[in-house]
Amino acid sequence: MKKIVILGAGTGGTISANSLRKKLDKREWQITVIDKNQMHYYQPGFLFLPFRFPGYKELPDVSRPIKSLLCKGVDFVSTEIIEIDVKKKRVETKSGNFDYDWLVSSLGCRIIPDDIEGMKDGYEKNVFDFYTPDSAIKLQRALERFEKGNVVLNVAEMPIKCPVAPIEFVFLADYYFYKRGIRNKVEIELVTPLPGAFTKPIATSVFSEIAKQKGIKITPNYNLGEVHHEKKIIKSYDGKEIDYDLLVAIPPFEGAAVIEDSGLGNGAGYIPTDKHTLKALKHEDIYSIGDGTDVPTSKAGSVAHFESEVMAENLLSEINGGAPTAKFDGHSNCFIESGFNKALLIDFNYKVEPLPGKFPLPVIGPFSLLKETRINHQGKLAFRWAYWNQILPCKLPGEPILTNECSPRGKKVSMLTDSSLFEI
Ligand SMILES: Cc1cc2nc3c(=O)[nH]c(=O)nc-3n(C[C@H](O)[C@H](O)[C@H](O)COP(=O)(O)OP(=O)(O)OC[C@H]3O[C@@H](n4cnc5c(N)ncnc54)[C@H](O)[C@@H]3O)c2cc1C
C-alpha cells in the first residue's frame, strides 16, 4: 500500500484529503491526516465572535469535529507532529511514526505575541486578539465591558493571516458600538505598518474612504516596538506613542515550529515553495499549501482551497508518471463585512490587484467587487454553510462559476495598464 500523509486538518489539509480520496484507488493508496486538534474551526467566525454577531456567539457556532469532515477512507490521527524526517520519509508524532511516499504540508501559521516586548504581559488585562478560539471569546467579554475610550487595533508586522481582518474588525467595531448606542463615546483607530488600510492600492483607497465616512482613524507606517499595558500605550521603534484603552493586537506570525525544527523552513517557519506548482523547493516528494507556504499571496482560506485543487492535480499527475504542470496563479478572494448589513468582495492574484466589477459573472454578478452591497453581506453569511457543506467536502460547482484561476470576467480590466497580467 502506498502512503500519502497530510499534515494539518485545517482548510487546506481537509480539502486536500477529501479531493485526493475521491480520485485515488482505496486499495492502492492510504491517506492519513494528522492534526493535534480534534476540532476544525471556521476561522472567519473568529472575527464575528467578539461582536456576538448573529449566529456567532459561542465556539460550537464555528467548530466541528475533524473526523466528521473527512471522507470515508481517510485515516485521521489526532496527535502533535514533532519532526518530519525527510531522509527517512517519516513523520514523527507524539503517538508514533508515519512513513510516507508523498507528503502534503498544511500546518498553517500561528501568532507569536512574545515577539513584542510587553505584549504578553498585557494579555487579558487590556490587550486582546481574535486569532484563536479562546482569545476571540475573551475579546467578546472585554468588548461587552467596554463603555468608552480608545479602541486601537494594531497590526505588529506583515505578513499576517487574513490581511483584510484588521479593516473588517474596525468596520464591525463601528457597527457594534453604534448598535449599543455608545459610538459617540468610542474612538476607533487602525494602526498599521502598511502605507494604508490594505496591501494593494485600489482596494486601500476604497477601504480608506469607507473608514473616513465611519469616523475611523487610520495611522499608517507604524512599526510596533513595545506595549506598556500599565500606561495603556503602544510605542513604535521610532518612539511614537499611541494611547489606548483597549488594544486589539494582531501579533507577529510564524509558521509551525515543527517546520523549522525539521529544517524545512525559511527561518520564520514557512516552507520555501514553488509559487506555481506548490512543490516544496528543496524536496521532490513534498507539497506545501495554505498559510504555511512562503508564496507571495494572502494567507487566506480561499488560497488554501484553490491551492489544494492545484496541488491535487499535480500530485495525481506525478503519481501517474507525468509532470506537475498545473499552475497556481495566487488567486485569493474574500468578503469584507463592513457593518450595517453590507459587505465588500475582493478577488485578485499574484499579479492583478483587486479591481471593481461583478463576480463571478459579468453584469449579473450577483456579487459586486470593491463595493458595499447587501448581496455581498448575504454572500458572507451564506459562506459558513458553503464552507462546511460544499468547500470542505469538495462539492463546489467549479467551472464556470468558481475556478481556482483568477478570471478577468466581470472585472474593470481597463483600470490595468497591462491586461496580459491575467496570464500565468
Ligand atoms: C479572524 C480570521 C478571519 C479570517 N477570515 C477569512 C476570510 O474571510 N476568508 C478567507 O479566505 N480566510 C480567512 N481567514 C484565514 C483562513 O482561516 C486561513 O487562511 C486558513 O484556515 C488556512 O488554512 P491552512 O490549512 O493553511 O491552515 P489552518 O486552517 O490554520 O490549519 C492548520 C492545522 O495544522 C494543525 N497543526 C499545526 N501545527 C501542528 C503540529 N505540530 N501537529 C499537529 N497539527 C498541527 C493545526 O491544529 C490546524 O488544524 C481568517 C482567519 C482568521 C484567524
What would you note in describing this structure?
By secondary structure, the chain is α/β, with parallel strands linked by helices. The chain has nine helices and 24 strands. It has three domains: 2-43 and 62-110 and 254-319, 3-Layer(bba) Sandwich (FAD/NAD(P)-binding domain); 112-253, FAD/NAD(P)-binding domain, CATH 3.50.50; 332-422, no CATH class. The chain has helices spanning 11-23, 66-69, 119-122, 133-145, 165-179, 201-213, 257-261, 301-319, 374-391, and strands at 2-7, 29-35, 39-41, 63-65, 74-78, 81-85, 90-93, 96-99, 102-105, 109-111, 127-128, 149-155, 186-191, 217-219, 224-228, 233-236, 241-243, 246-250, 253-255, 286-288, 332-339, 342-348, 357-361, 365-369. The strands form eight sheets. Strands 5-2-1-9-20 form a five-stranded parallel sheet, covered by helices on one side. It has a five-stranded parallel sheet with strand order 11-18-12-13-14. Strand 23 (357-361) and strand 24 (365-369) form a beta hairpin. Helix 1 runs parallel beside helix 8. The longest helix is centred in the C-terminal third of the chain and has 19 residues, at 301-319. The chain is globular. The two termini are 36 Å apart. The model has no long low-confidence stretch (mean pLDDT 96). Residues 8-13, 34-37, 43-44, 46-47, 80-81, 106-108, 130-131, 161-162, 165, 256, 258, 290-292, 299-302, 304, 334 line the site of flavin-adenine dinucleotide.
Number of domains: 3
Helix content: 10-25%
CATH uppermost class of the largest domain: Alpha Beta
Q: Count the strands? A: 24
Query: What CATH architecture of the largest domain do you see?
Result: 3-Layer(bba) Sandwich
Strand order of the largest sheet: 5-2-1-9-20
CATH superfamily of the largest domain: FAD/NAD(P)-binding domain
Number of helical regions: 9
Taken as a percent bin, the fraction of beta residues is 25-35%
Overall mean pLDDT stands at 96
CATH topology of the largest domain: FAD/NAD(P)-binding domain
| Class from secondary-structure proportions | alpha/beta
Which regions contain 5 or more consecutive residues with pLDDT less than 50? none
**What general form does the structure show?**
globular
| Molecules bound to protein | flavin-adenine dinucleotide
Give the end-to-end Cα distance, rounded to a whole number of Å.
36 Å
**Largest sheet data:** 5 strands, parallel
Q: Which value, in Å, is the CA radius of gyration?
A: 21 Å
